[in-house]
Design a protein that fits this description.
Elements lengths: L8 H17 L4 H10 L17 H14 L1 H20 L4 H10 L7 E4 L17 E4 L3 E11 L7 E8 L5 E8 L5 E4 L13 E11 L3 E6 L11 H28 L13 H27 L4 H26 L1 H4 L5 H8 L9 H15 L23
Parallel strand pairs: 1-4, 2-4
Antiparallel strand pairs: 2-3, 3-7, 4-5, 5-8, 6-7
Helix pairs in contact: 1-2, 1-3, 3-4, 3-6, 3-7, 4-6, 6-7, 6-8, 6-10, 7-8, 8-10, 8-11
Length: 395
């Protein structure tokens, strides 16, 4: 599959037209999600053995960058489903009958999937630890009880992929497929973020929610169930492309304003002034540079976790700087919702918030750098992994 096989222009425009309203209300962005569904993008990564197009991770990055131009919240909700299918195409974790049923349903309506992993006490699993959410054995399967935080798209998901530990001895951890229509599920509307308001990343409380015994993925010994941040570096970088799209939208708005604004004391557009020529150049350097960094790594370095992590941090920092520069350069017009840059600016603040957070990613790079320069006489034990209060931070 190639992004060029799908004309995203109309999809992006539908997302962009609906974005200001859902940003203001925080309502679930059904207009945008339905547009993505009708385009076929939600299932773009379904494996070829299931009749799917089998889009690759670099293609996913480009899709998400395009959707991010329209509405990053819709792009993020969509990404969770797209990544789930991408993972299944590569690893085959789902019970086949269940997965095929979902694909059949997806022909009729948006099937939205997302992992529910972060917890109030644990924070992000990227920092280690086991979930408090408990899966108890029942006569028919499993009963799930626990509370999850930051579940993107919570109000519109069709299935929660709930990370939980079992009540067995020895304990195991796994991801339980929980249909959103089951009794015992309560979405608690806690999402009050600066940006990404329509992503609806609310808390979800599960109380004795029963699922069939076979509807569980990756059920493994509790000691081997930790999140592998290096293994997920490619997906995390592709996720950053959402915010690249938002930065490109902000850049477009900046350029459009520069051409349309004609102060009476000048008599011509401010786009002709040296100041705005310089600002436009700086913004382009940052935004286009971030695109090069992201896609060079996705296209050529998928087997190099450090390069992917480094690319995410560098591109994320440039995207943040570009948004700040565009907003600050325009003064009051930049702060007005009418122009749209302030919304893009708010959304972009989340670019480095996703797990693993910036400090965790930096630590991965730091340990790798120290290991490369380690004298042969030393063992890896002489460079300890620091343990601090940061491991207790919320995700």
């Amino acid at each position: 599959m190639s992004q060029s096989t799908i004309d995203l222009t109309d999809v992006i425009q539908q997302l962009a037209d609906a974005a200001p309203t859902v940003d203001a209300t925080g309502d679930f962005p059904w207009v945008g999600i339905n547009a993505v569904h009708e385009s076929g993008l939600l299932e773009s990564t379904v494996g070829k053995r299931f009749g799917g197009a089998g889009a690759s991770l670099p293609e996913v990055g480009r899709i998400l960058a395009s959707l991010g131009r329209g509405d990053p919240s819709v792009a993020l909700i969509s990404a969770m489903t797209i990544f789930t299918h991408l993972s299944e195409a590569g690893r085959g974790r789902w019970p086949e009958d269940l997965y095929r049923r979902l694909l059949a349903e997806a022909k009729e309506r948006p099937i939205l999937l997302n992992a529910a992993r972060v917890e109030p006490d644990l924070g992000s699993p990227a920092r280690g630890g086991l979930p408090e959410t408990l899966a108890r054995r029942t006569a028919r399967g499993w009963s799930i009880t626990g509370r999850k935080r930051f579940v993107t798209g919570a109000l519109g998901l069709t299935h929660f992929l709930v990370w939980a530990r079992t009540d067995e001895k020895p304990q195991r951890v796994g991801t339980f497929v929980v249909p959103a229509t089951l009794p015992g599920i309560e979405v608690i509307q806690t999402w009050k973020s600066l940006g990404m308001r329509a992503s609806g990343s609310h808390d979800v409380h599960f109380t004795d929610v029963e699922v069939p015994r076979e509807d569980v993925l990756d059920l493994v010994d509790a000691g081997s169930g930790a999140q592998d941040n290096r293994a997920h570096a490619g997906m995390t970088l592709a996720l950053s492309a959402i915010y690249l799209g938002a930065a490109e939208a902000a850049q477009d708005a900046f350029v459009r304003f520069a051409h349309e604004r004609v102060p009476s004391n000048l008599g011509y557009p401010i786009a002709r002034t040296e100041r705005f020529i310089s600002l436009a150049g700086e913004i382009d350097l940052l935004v286009a540079g971030a695109r090069q960094i992201i896609f060079n790594a996705l296209d050529y370095r998928l087997d190099d976790p450090e390069t992917l992590i480094r690319a995410r941090l560098l591109a994320g920092r440039q995207i943040l700087k570009a948004a700040h520069l565009a907003l600050g350069a325009l003064g009051n017009p930049g702060l007005s919702a009418d122009l749209g840059i302030e919304r893009h600016f708010r959304d972009i603040q989340s670019v480095l918030v996703h797990a693993p957070q910036e400090d965790t990613a930096i630590a991965i790079l730091g340990r790798a750098a120290l290991a490369r320069g380690q004298p042969p006489s030393q063992t890896t034990a002489s460079v300890p992994t620091p343990v601090s209060s940061s491991i207790l931070k919320a995700g």
